[in-house]
Design goal:
Blueprint lengths: L3 H9 L8 E4 L4 E4 L1 H4 L9 H12 L4 E3 L3 H15 L7 E4 L2 E5 L1 H7 L8 E2 L2 E2 L4 H16 L4 E5 L2 H7 L8 E3 L4 H8 L12 H11 L4 H6 L12 H12 L14 E11 L2 H22 L3 E10 L4 E12 L2 H15 L6 E9 L3 H4 L26 H4 L26 E5 L2
Parallel strand pairs: 1-3, 8-9
Antiparallel strand pairs: 1-2, 4-5, 5-14, 6-7, 8-14, 10-13, 11-12, 11-13
Helix pairs in contact: 4-6, 12-13
Length: 421
């Protein structure tokens, strides 16, 4: 969905369409409309900085619209109803972002009547391009909002492609090695999902690379960057090869739950602890509603100079009570951060929701095991990152007539991603 939160606000208040506005607070922006983005006002930015940018660059006032997540959920549900018609196993990554596999739908379109493929007076064809256009039009008819799409041979390519023709457009990457390579090479490293600010700086410093093409050209040096950090090695190998899942990723259980808020910068310990108590109570209520217990605790603070700190602790037992959460938050804050500095953001979180593990009594460690552990009959060593570069990198795409859902082999599946900026 295009600028989803802002689009919903424009839908409900047409007067906002000609104004510079953002959804959020003075502490943090959730998103902004395209007029505001022209002046660098974007999601994740403190609202007061956005206001200064609007005054300085646009000579106008930035309108801050409080977020209404319940309303956004209503529109998201309508869009999901459309998505399910094209892939019953679609995966929502957020309220405004989804992955779908069109492979089975394209096969079904061959036997559909013209009436079944006609919407708003337009007859759509059987090819992937027409099917995606049809889906986007149906989302618009259901919600009054536009969405953009990207599609290709795997989730990595489709996710990047979904950003290439926004707003209200779509972009395709052909299903062959040369096309994927041509698509990825000119991209800045930060365009790759999973490459953030720190990894970008690290790669630029270590290898003097700034694009995916640079990284591909220096692929022989990448194995020397990491010792035992196999996850990072494998991730970069996938980027170089243009590799991604060919099945729609299904969301698993949440690994953490947290609450945070931005406040007016202050060094007043009493005020800061009051905020932590409110956040702890909210987190406790949230965890109880979800019936989960956290075995780990994290405290997050940001100074008035925008320096972010996090501290984590393994808890003696899993908890989900607000009062207990606050006890750990208070103790950690007083020990680490009650030093006179001003803070503008506070957050608390619980993680490690493995209740059986975290709720074990100390006596259980002295009990006999309930079942024996049998060694595997055969041992299959993990293929290391170094071996990956001993052979010419081939685009891992094998043509098949249908998508094997759950397979990690590249198949000719039509993976699409639909998302907002």
């Amino acid at each position: 969905m295009d600028m989803f939160f802002a689009a919903v606000e424009e839908f409900d208040d047409q007067s906002l369409k000609e104004k510079i506005f953002a959804v959020g607070t003075a502490g943090m922006l959730c998103t902004s409309n395209y007029k505001a983005r022209k002046y660098g006002i974007r999601a994740g930015m403190p609202g007061f900085i956005g206001e200064k940018l609007a005054e300085r660059l646009a000579k106008d006032k930035l309108i801050l619209v409080p977020p209404r997540h319940g309303r956004y959920k209503e529109f998201s549900v309508k869009a999901e109803e459309v998505f399910s018609q094209y892939d019953p196993n679609y995966a929502m990554m957020s309220l405004d972002e989804a992955y779908m596999d069109f492979t089975e739908h394209l096969e079904a379109r061959l036997t559909m009547t013209d009436e079944q493929k006609t919407f708003d007076g337009v007859l759509y064809g059987n090819d992937i391009d027409s099917a995606v256009k049809e889906m986007r039009q149906r989302v618009f008819l259901a919600t009054g909002l536009t969405c953009s799409a990207g599609y290709g041979a795997n989730t990595l390519v489709s996710k990047i492609a979904s950003d290439m023709n926004k707003p209200n457009g779509q972009f395709a990457v052909a299903f062959d090695e040369a096309s994927v390579n041509e698509f990825l090479r000119p991209l800045a490293l930060r365009k790759i999902p999973g490459i953030g600010k720190r990894l970008d700086i690290f790669l630029k410093t270590a290898l003097d690379v700034s694009t995916v093409g640079d990284l591909i050209d220096k692929k022989h040096l990448v194995p020397f960057l990491y010792d035992e950090e196999k996850s990072a090695s494998g991730f970069l190998a996938g980027v170089i090869a243009g590799y991604g899942n060919t099945f729609v990723p299904q969301s698993g259980p949440r690994k953490s739950r947290g609450k945070e808020t931005s406040i007016k910068p202050t060094s007043n310990t009493r005020i800061l602890l009051e905020v932590l108590r409110e956040l702890s109570d909210d987190l406790g209520k949230h965890c109880k509603e979800a019936d989960v217990f956290g075995g780990g605790f994290t405290l997050k603070v940001k100074t008035d100079q925008f320096v972010l700190y996090t501290r984590s602790k393994v808890l003696p037992r899993a908890i989900n009570d607000g009062e207990e959460i606050f006890k750990f938050a208070e103790k950690m804050f007083m020990k680490e951060f009650a030093d006179g500095r001003k803070y503008r953001l506070l957050g608390v979180a619980l993680k490690d929701f493995d209740n059986k593990k975290n709720n074990r009594k100390i006596t259980s460690f002295f009990e006999a095991p309930t079942k024996s552990v049998k060694a595997p009959e055969t041992f299959e060593p993990e293929v290391g990152f170094e071996l990956f570069f001993l052979h010419e990198i081939k685009f891992p795409c094998r043509v098949s007539s249908s998508c094997q859902r759950g397979s990690k082999n590249m198949s000719q599946s039509r993976i699409g991603q639909f998302r907002s900026e």
